[in-house]
Design goal:
It is globular, with a radius of gyration of 18 Å. The strands form three sheets. The protein has a two-stranded antiparallel sheet with strand order 1-2. The chain has a two-stranded antiparallel ribbon with strand order 3-4. The longest helix is centred in the last third of the chain and has 28 residues. About 5% of the residues have low confidence. Helix 2 packs across helix 3. Helix content is about 55%, strand content about 10%. It is built from six helices and six strands. The protein starts with a strand and ends with a helix. With about 190 residues, it is mainly alpha-helical. A hairpin with a 2-residue loop joins strand 3 and strand 4.
């Protein structure tokens, strides 16, 4: 279990072990673990906390750190959070992993006897990983709706992700309807 200090003095607990991403995705085991942890933390902060809501996220993080996950919380972590974070963490790494940022600038290292893939191939790989992460996010959401965890309110009441879906210069607002809103809309 890795603990990193976040710049705003919040202790961030990585909810995966170091090898779970490389053992379960196309990412190789020769990746710098520190860079991979940063991507897992990005996935936790930008997507997982949004999906779970702050209260449930903090409960999972606290119980995971203490080793006291049990019952539905253990099921949530083992069967839904881990598969989601593995794919979302890999997605975050695929977006930035090829780059090295140093004092002399941003570069793309190329080891001997390798051929880097082109942008089209990389985008295809990123899109495939995004689809898998979204699939696991949706499975988690459906399970959360069926479970009765007191810390989970609903997806629409959770923390808002700062990213807005856009298509070119068009912004298309997405809003998740509650079951009651959906029924009311269908009854009109």
């Amino acid at each position: 279990m890795a603990i990193l200090r976040h710049t705003i003095c919040k202790t961030m607990i990585v909810l995966l072990t170091d090898n779970e991403i490389t053992d379960n995705t196309v990412l190789g085991g020769n990746i710098d673990v520190d860079r991979l942890r940063i991507c897992i933390l990005d996935a936790q902060m930008s997507r997982l906390e949004e999906l779970l809501g702050e209260e449930l996220y903090l409960k999972i993080e606290t119980d995971f750190e203490a080793g006291t996950l049990e019952d539905d919380y253990l099921i949530l972590h083992r069967d839904y959070i881990k598969p989601f974070l593995i794919r979302q963490g890999a997605l975050e790494f695929l977006k930035v992993g090829a780059f090295t940022v140093a004092n002399n600038g941003i570069s793309v290292p190329s080891p001997q006897n390798t051929t880097p893939i082109d942008a089209k191939m990389l985008n295809g790989l990123i899109n495939e990983m995004r689809m898998k992460a979204d699939m696991f996010a949706e499975r988690m959401y459906k399970w959360l709706c069926k479970s009765r965890l007191p810390e989970y309110v609903s997806r629409t009441d959770n923390i808002i992700n700062p990213q807005k879906p856009s298509f070119g210069s068009w912004y298309l607002e997405t809003r998740t309807l509650t079951v009651d809103e959906w029924i009311e809309k269908k009854m009109r």
